[in-house]
Amino acid sequence: MAEHIKVRPAGGTWVVRAGGAVIAESDDALELTEGDYPSVIYFPREDIAMAFLEESSHTSHCPYKGEAGYFSIVTKSKTLKDAAWTYVAPKDGVTEIAGHVAFYNSADEVTVEQV
User: Among 26, 66, 86, 105, which has the minimal tally of Cβ within 10 Å of its Cβ?
Assistant: First the structure.
């Protein structure tokens, strides 16, 4: 386990907005902090409108969390390529993020916020 990674309940209600729609809303989100990087909110899949997500062929590898798979967000006006990711089989120490999806927070296309 990487000592510089912490996973804890995010607390409160969190939402993801893209293309004018709320595509995720959760009271059970997780907050992952990794060293000096900004915190990332992970949403349980059951709290995401998965119909907006299209599985991507893109993958990446983190030595601490494992292999990440990506999703594009399909909105009415465009597709936001590789805008979300998940660790299907995360490494020991971060197993609680299994079954969760995180989103890139970009003010002009995708917003992740606490409400």
Answer: 105
